[in-house]
Structure prediction request, 842 residues.
Amino acid sequence: MKLQRTKAPASKEIKRLSFEKAKKQILKNGIELYSITVGEQEILKIDFMFAAGEWYQTTPLVSASTIQLLQEGSALYSADSIAEQLDFMGSYIYFNASKHTATITVYTLVKYFEETIKILEDVIKNPQFPEEKFRTYVAKKQQLYTLEREKVEVMAQKKFVQVVFGTQHPYGISHEPEEFLNLTVSQLKKFHAHFYNSNNCKIVMSGKIKLEQHEIITRYFGDAAWNVHKSVITLPDYVIEPSEQKSHFVEKPDAVQSAVRVGKLLVNKYNPDYSTLQVLNTILGGYFGSRLMSNIREDKGYTYGIGSGIVSHKTAGYFVIVSQVGSNVCKQALNEIYYELKRLRTETIPDAEIQTVKNYMKAAIARNFDGPFALSESFKTILEYDLGYKYYMQFWKKIDKISASELKYLANTYLNEGSMYEVIAGGNP
Amino acid sequence: MIVFETFELENGLRFIVNTDTNTPFVAVNTIYNVGSKHESPNKTGFAHLFEHLMFGGSKNIPSFDTPLQKVGGENNAFTNTDITNYYITLPKENIETAFWLESDRMLELAFSQKSLDVQKNVVIEEFKQRYLNRPYGDTWLHIRPMAYKTHPYQWATIGKTIEHIQSANLDDVRDFFYTHYAPNNAVVAISGNVSVKKVKKLAKKWFASIPKRDIVHTQMPVEKKQRKKRTYTLERDVPSHAIYKVYHMCGRFQQDFYATDLLSDILSNGKSARLYTELVQKQKIFSEINAFVTGEIDPGLFVISGNVMPGYNIDEAERAIDLETEKLSHEMVSEHELQKVKNKVESTIIFSETSILQKAMNLARFELLHHAHMLNHEVEKYAAVSTHDINRVAQSVLCAQNESALYYISKTI
Prediction:
């Protein structure tokens, strides 16, 4: 039989989402430990999560700087010794503060698990914030921020969140290099003393976990309460204050490309419309075959890339279209962006396109549960939002049942092109 | 350790299969033995532009991406100086879609004028975004022609200039396809939840009828030994001075690669590495500093790059780096320090084996350019490096007559 090259081979839909769930255990001091036992390699990932993100800081940059400086010296180990030991064991450690959560992530070989955890115990519980290391950190960060603010995409993003949330809200604030100079060691020590304690900590472990690893974690982190003392930090009532003006321009003379942001405030993960909006967003700009990519890159060639996304923070979210386009075609690209937004509201999305996006999204969700590290990341998301695995199951069901009329209705409710903010950073258009 | 099987079709196309049942997905990686080093000096950037055209439809299938997305697949590609690499991951049930799509574009492209016109614009925007519109973005456009005088590594994969991309026409595209894209100039590696038997059946069905093509294997010119240090100064509106020092070294599959790679790790892999502890933390001359090897197939480059802190000029910055590299030539590293970087490499390799895509990419690259089975000997090769080897490669690589230095001076300081 002659090979039919014009016809696609038979394919199957992914019917069900199945994966290994995290097992919860409450340690003696109250810490919740979650373990996901998956994988063949002799490796582990451990996340220590603290409710200590930017939301909780009363001085700019304190949350991020506190976590970054944990590794710069503890009661038992100098910064050099921490770095030397972790490098020798081939363990990788990452420190990250997001809007609400500060996370210390460690990747380690099983054979070095205990030695790595032992160092981490001191790093997390007893950091010293040495003055000299602090000053080096401040000087480095100042330089890095000075470099970053030269980039049009950074300029546009900073302006965009400011326009959407206002300059006083943690989701809208961005920082200038000079602000590092106002930081002090005592601010970091105070922030650490208040937030890095066993009452404010959750641990997620994934990979090749045996009883022994449970015992080790319990021994170093789970027995007696640590760093718990009474102190009160009063946070202001954050109010979202969007800009009155819809269109904003940040000038960078001589830029050969302009960074574009078009978007607005939007619901977050807690809203029942969120899943459907994710489908709508995928159709518009959430995958390579999306309408924005097909039109503005693959048909017009105005950009190397364009996409859209919904960012969900704990108390609010936003929708944004992101691109960098040739300065000479910026106007045309914006026209096409609004054209595509309008089309979502006025035309019915063809069944074939919906089917493609359904299959694409289901596979994307399945990928988020493939392997120990992906499983742990997906679990951390629902843990941060107190959502439970049913969030993903409902998302899956929603994708299965999505209809063109529902999508059109939501596009009209949430994504009217007239309601969008527009930020351009680059050469004068 | 990655367990795999290989087989070859009559047209010369080689397959490698690693079965991994821990995942519901499969990765299919197709690598072609063509990179920017195969371009003509007057038509640079072409291999990469061509990679874009591989998504613009093939002989029997108008769109590559749509049918793949329809079955839950993801894909992308990259081009470097040596090779062009295309990869797909998709649910294991739908693996045949990947075979159908990859085989059709290996058979013949659609050669569409519209696709060429659009992708030229897209690549020009990529050129602007990555090389022209960000601080220090044009660094490699200047380093390569300084370090290489005869070898085609003297131009960056994106191309020498935007004009080269603009001038590409459909005849060039056709020529390029039939000169480089052929089953006998490619390897397909598959990792994931699929049996060797199934892959064999699908390989035969979809790829066996693609004709073998005459591939001209051009001998790459050998770069003449450098005798004198080269320098180049750029003055730009950037927030701080930066320095890039590059040294000639051996190719990826030559004996000394492993010692040279570990030498770069001693200088900058991790927070305990020498350049970071000495020049960032102690002397505070740099805000950031890195050493790495390009890992190219023909003799490549050993790179040291750093961003200078305010208050230091470029000479002071360079002197500080030179003192560190001289130490490596004059003094032996300790067994402990060498063991540390070896452990780190081993750990990196173990972690990389958790990803089916990473496995498929590595297997394909090793098979195309070396031998797939050598991938499982990497750890041993690193382990075999001695402190004497480190000292020896430091002396031969990190010396002034082997060096090209780019001084990137801030006009605003």
The two ends of chain A are 59 Å apart (CA to CA). Chain A is about 40% helix and 20% strand.
